[in-house]
Design brief:
Shape: elongated
Radius of gyration: 23 Å
Distance between the termini: 29 Å
Helix content: over 70%
Strand content: under 5%
Number of helices: 13
């Protein structure tokens, strides 16, 4: 065998190296989500019980990260404030990805539906997220976190539909889809059995992006006090409440801010790592 032939031969697939490359960003995201969900079980103090003086320094009264504006344990409130945020963001990401995938796959098969979806998406994208959240919060005064979740879904679907439709259009123009159309297959079969399986990587990456976007949208609403209300433990609400005392106990503001940033970045990196791996597995089948 010549050197040229040896170089031209396809390299064998190495699942161990691929698995390590995928697990490296996935494990931190999974651990962070697990800690946030199990946080209420790990908290040392009740979230509404003062244990230090207002804005007590780190270590005072047994509070590792000090106290907040009412002297409540910052670490305990931090551990209790992530589960609701993650749950809401997960619901938004799942619903938005599901609706966008269905609409995007069917839109490329029907020109009339495609034009309708495109015009509706272009119009909805022009609405600023803050304005949309405020309008829905004002129209639904007692909605709380549920209103913010609904607003995040309504604001996220149009952009997501454009992404799915853009990825599905080349697939719909391939020979195997045209052959299925010529054989008389129904649009539901074409969308779910012919187009959707070829969009696994796109859908997974879209889910990661929608989760991150939902974290930011819900956090922004909490900072504006449009969702959760005091004395509820919420990361964004903690930043808003403890902002005036950031010089007295910086951890009351820095800790929830770091938690939001770490959650968004780690989940996005995990989704980006899983998407190519999903595409490679689909290509090998």
């Amino acid at each position: 065998m010549t050197a040229t032939e040896a170089y031209a031969r396809p390299r064998p697939h190495r699942p161990g190296r691929l698995g390590a490359r995928v697990l490296a960003p996935v494990v931190p995201a999974a651990l962070l989500v697990l800690v946030a969900l199990a946080g209420p079980l790990l908290a040392a103090h009740p979230v509404d019980k003062p244990v230090t003086a207002p804005y007590g320094e780190a270590g005072a009264g047994g509070a590792v990260l000090g106290g907040d504006q009412l002297g409540r344990d910052v670490l305990s409130r931090l551990l209790n404030g992530g589960s609701a945020l993650i749950g809401s963001a997960l619901v938004v990401a799942v619903v938005v990805t599901f609706l966008a995938t269905l609409l995007g796959c069917f839109a490329v098969l029907s020109p009339r539906l495609g034009r309708l979806v495109e015009r509706a998406a272009d119009t909805a994208i022009l609405l600023p997220p803050v304005l949309g959240i405020m309008l829905l919060a004002l129209a639904w005064p007692g909605g709380g976190r549920l209103a913010i979740t609904v607003a995040a879904v309504l604001l996220g679907v149009p952009y997501a539909v454009r992404i799915v439709a853009g990825a599905a259009a080349p697939v719909a123009a391939t020979g195997f889809v045209e052959a299925a159309v010529a054989s008389g297959e129904r649009p539901g079969y074409l969308a779910l059995r012919e187009i959707l399986p070829n969009l696994r990587a796109t859908v997974l990456a879209l889910f990661g992006l929608r989760f991150v976007d939902a974290v930011y949208v819900i956090s922004m609403a909490g900072f504006l006090q449009l969702g959760p209300r005091p004395p509820e433990a919420d990361w964004a609400l903690m930043i808003r409440e403890n902002g005036p005392g950031i010089l007295l106990n910086p951890w009351a503001v820095v800790a929830p801010g770091l938690a939001i940033g770490a959650l968004a970045i780690s989940v996005n990196l995990a989704a980006n790592a899983l998407a190519p791996a999903t595409a490679r597995r689909a290509a090998l089948r």
